[in-house]
Amino acid sequence: MRVVIQMYGLMLYNICMLLTYQYKLNPTPEQVVTMETWGELLRRHYNYALGQRLDWLNRTRSQIDRCSLIYEPIGEIPQKVDYYTQASDLKQTKQLFPEYENIYADCQQQNLMRLDKSWKRWLIPDKNGKRGGRPRFKKRGEICSFTFPRVNCAKAGAHLTGNTLKLSKIGEINVILHRPIPDGFEIKQATILKKADGWYVSFSLEDKSVPTALPIDEIKTATGIDVGLEKFLTTADGQSIEVPQYYRKAQATLARQQRKLARSTKGSKNYHSSVNKVARLHLHVARQRKEFHYQVAHWLVNSYDLIVFENLNIKGLARTRLAKSILDVAWGAFLQIMQAVAVRRGKHTQGVDPRGTSINCSGCGARVEKTLAVRVHSCSCGLVIDRDWNSALNLLKLGSVGLPIPGCGGLGNTQPMKQQVSFVNPRCSRYTACS
Fold it and tell me: Which residues form the Cas12f1-like TNB domain (predicted)?
């Protein structure tokens, strides 16, 4: 399940939800050449448009009545460059370079929209005051996708009929529809992209049957989840899931292929073959990890009405010496998937500040200092439980304030326990807990 197809995008819009279904394509060799040519031409146009914006920024970064202390470009100051001015120049681009006439016009506009979003993300901070990185020039092969913004309508460039996708100026391509598009879902746009193992199409679907969130007074089951490296996560009722370590297990095979790649002559057939094998290995590991995340997320959402998790600074943690293990478990990707699945099911999720949750006692609230090497929480009140279990109980307490549910999971200071954590395998049945 979800080796080829993934619901990896989800966004709320009023009462609708946007899902992304991905299917594999079977293009002909001629169509492959056409799509690769489109990607290369769009890459060149992207770089040219980015150069225009950077040139305008460098020439106008100083006010008109003063000079820059660093440098001042000489020449005529250009007018402001934005999406609308660059989109209006597409007609002139096709006159100067006739090969761009073979690319569907909407795909070229979407390419400029992609640049415009990256540009604004760099210059305009978000509500938290953070900005994205500076847009970079794309190397050959980095732009391997293009978008048809309209599907199955009068002026659309893409039409899906059965298992056949008809693209303007490309032709009809067979689609492997290994799961049907649900009834009532409207296809908003189609993105053609290339991966290491072939070409895919991602349909953006609008789902108007979004379930309403469960009322707060009807929440019956809640849990806190503590993520870690020894155990992937531990719930407030003592259940844990082991860390799969997909990248660690694939390291030996990956290193062997990378050594073979290093010995190959750059640009030769063996070189390109080795590059593709390395890319396929990374793609396989990513798919394994995402499938595992979906299984755990569905198991949690099916088991609990409210899931409390910790708001971790994952980027900061990934700068430590544990970076490889932290990036392998991919907590951030899992939390996004879990929240998306919860919204789709009408369940609740809540993030809380994790400070002190591993140190404070979940029974009496006392502060019990311990290092990371100490994996058992032992308090003077008599509570002796697993360290991650104690943290999950504290997270549940913080997230269930004001709710009509037991916030401590049944562990009070009058009921000290000494118990081991039980492991759960979410794969034993399809998105259900083990019996």
Answer: 331-395
Domain boundaries, the chain: 10-207, 216-423
Distance between CA 162 and CA 275 in Å, rounded?
A: 35
Cβ–Cβ under 8 Å, residues 328 and 227: no
Q: Is 49 exposed, middle or buried (0-12, 13-18, 19+ CB in 10 A)?
A: buried
Residues 6+ apart with CB under 8 A from 85: 79
Q: DSSP states of 324-346 as a string?
A: HHHHHHTHHHHHHHHHHHHHHHT
- Which residues are 19's β-sheet partners? 10, 205
Cα(226)–Cα(391) distance, integer angstroms: 6
Question: Among all chains, which residue has been given the structure tokens 């006739």?
Answer: 98
**Looking at 88-221, which runs of residues are DSSP E strands?**
145-148, 158-161, 164-167, 171-176, 186-195, 198-207
Residue type, 309: F
Spell out the per-residue pLDDT of the chain, length 435, in tens: 333 333 334 444 345 788 899 999 999 999 999 999 999 999 999 999 999 999 888 877 766 566 666 666 656 777 889 999 999 999 999 999 999 999 999 999 999 999 999 999 999 998 888 899 999 999 988 888 999 999 998 889 999 999 999 999 999 999 999 999 988 889 999 999 999 999 999 999 988 877 888 888 888 899 999 999 999 999 998 899 999 999 999 999 999 999 999 999 998 999 999 999 999 999 999 999 999 999 999 999 999 999 999 999 888 888 989 999 999 999 999 999 999 999 888 899 999 988 888 888 988 888 888 888 888 888 888 888 888 899 999 999 988 876 766 544 444 433 444 444 556 677 664 444 443
Q: What is the pTM of this model?
A: 0.85
